[in-house]
Specification:
- Pfam families: Glyco_hydro_1.
- By secondary structure, the protein is an alpha/beta fold.
- It has a single domain, classed as TIM Barrel (Alpha-Beta Barrel).
- The chain is 41% helix and 16% strand.
- The strands form two sheets. Strands 1-2-3-4-5-6-8-9 form an eight-stranded parallel beta barrel, surrounded by six helices.
- It starts with 6 loop residues before the first strand and ends in a 6-residue tail after the last helix.
- The structure holds 5-hydroxymethyl-3,4-dihydroxypiperidine (IFM).
Length: 418
């Protein structure tokens, strides 16, 4: 592997950046925005960080609305990515735009995404396309969404349509984004649509997502044998709190539930592992976060070494690995440059120790709509002024650019000599 074939870039998802989406999430936002704004009174969110965006105490923070208007401004955004030295970009297709009514495919929307991937290609940027990054078309929500095993066939049909249309311009396909984050928050904790709290539903939806991935994998490989197909899987490094022997069991359970259960189930149905890394945990009955002095604006512990520790655990799958997300909310851009630098340091060490890592995508290219937390968390390499839609490149984005320019992955690659 050399620096030319290592993919460097950033990721986004349709609902979080496009604006004007009409799906189960946009409906849920309208119905829940007041409640979320009220609940924010009890949260320890840093209010001063919401300058230039709605405050977490305001209803407008929780309604995705125009978001970043990326649907119409994608060319401008890809010019920025190109200028920042990116040679790859991860985006998602919005199912509710492509199939707004059951079985009715919107050729204009498909044409739009064709333009999007071609705009990337024209800039020498490799598209990594996610087929489902959480929102559902309303008609599918009304049929029971992922809880209904029969609905898997609709996903398969949508995938067939999308891959047939975009296949000539796309090699890398990600069928599902973070399936277990979705099942846990939507069906176990009941905090996201459709707000269920049922272990049975959680298991059922997880099982249907496994089935959906496997079938989609088959369809994509049939249509496009040379494609590369995987999922983007959110995994954490777990360490057992030594204070009690039971914690060893809890660690095993946590790893199975969050990291390896889903991955093992689809092990023969993926060409690569897409790894989204954000956090590590010390496992005791509280699943405490790893103790570090550094936290993000959202209170997440920053633990760069965890990416290395997990990558060494993933070697056993003998598949190429892409870091499909890694990032932090940092409105003042005080920690982002160091965060990226340290994660890449550990990533290189993992490669030197034999992990076959082939790409890194920072989350996110743009500030965007962070689901039930709304607009205030600022993840972007590029800041968005939500009133004017003005884009401003953060200093950390330029540091990431210089890291990309200086990185010589030949020197760290297992075959390149350490
Ligand atoms: O914004 C999300 C993204 O949609 C999925 N992965 C984690 C990110 C930060 O929470």
């Amino acid at each position: 592997m050399n620096n030319e074939s290592f993919y460097w870039g950033a990721a986004t998802s349709s609902h979080q950046v496009e604006g004007n989406n009409h799906n189960d999430w946009s409906e849920w936002e309208k119905a829940n925005a007041d409640r979320l704004a009220n609940d924010a009174q009890k949260r320890q969110w840093p209010r001063h960080l919401s300058e230039g965006s709605p405050s977490p105490l305001e209803r407008s923070n929780y309604v995705s609305g125009r978001a970043c208007e990326h649907y119409t401004r994608f060319s401008e955004d890809f010019d920025i990515a190109k200028n920042l030295g990116h040679n790859a970009h991860r985006l998602s297709l919005e199912w509710s735009r492509i199939e707004p009514e059951e079985g009715v495919f919107n050729e204009e929307a498909i044409g739009h995404y064709r333009e999007v991937v071609q705009a990337l290609r024209a800039r020498g940027i490799e598209p990594f396309v996610t087929l489902w990054h959480w929102p559902l078309p309303l008609w599918l929500r009304d049929k029971g969404g992922w809880k209904n095993a029969d609905n898997v066939r609709y996903f398969v049909r949508y995938v067939e349509k999308a891959v047939s249309a975009l296949g000539p311009d796309v090699t890398f396909w990600i069928t599902l984004n973070e399936p277990l984050v979705y099942t846990k928050i939507s069906y176990l904790e009941g905090r996201w649509p459709p707000q269920e709290k049922s272990y049975i539903s959680y298991l059922r939806v997880s099982r249907n997502l496994i089935k959906a991935h496997k079938k989609a994998f088959g369809v994509i490989k049939r249509l496009q044998p040379a494609s590369q197909v995987g999922i983007a899987h959110n995994m954490s490094f777990f360490e057992a709190d030594k204070s009690h022997v039971i914690n060893g069991f809890l660690k095993w359970f946590g790893e199975w539930r969050k990291n390896f259960g889903f991955l093992n189930a689809i092990a023969d149905y993926q060409d690569f592992i897409g790894f989204n890394y954000y956090s590590s945990y010390v496992v005791n009955l509280n699943f405490d976060k790893v103790k570090t002095e550094q936290t993000t604006d959202m209170g997440w512990a920053i633990y760069p070494k965890g990416i290395y520790l997990m990558l060494t655990r993933l070697k056993k799958y003998r598949k190429p690995i892409y870091i499909t997300e890694n990032g932090l909310a940092d409105a003042k851009d005080e920690k982002r440059a160091q965060f990226i630098d340290e994660h890449i340091f550990w990533l290189k060490k993992a490669i030197a120790d034999g992990a076959d890592v082939r790409g890194y995508f920072y989350w996110s290219l743009l500030d965007n709509f962070e689901w039930s937390d709304g607009f205030w968390p600022r993840f972007g390499l590029v800041a968005i002024d939500y009133l004017t839609q003005e884009r401003s490149i953060r200093p950390s984005a330029l540091i990431y650019k210089s890291i990309i320019e200086k990185a010589d992955m030949r020197r760290v690659g297992p075959e390149g000599g350490k």
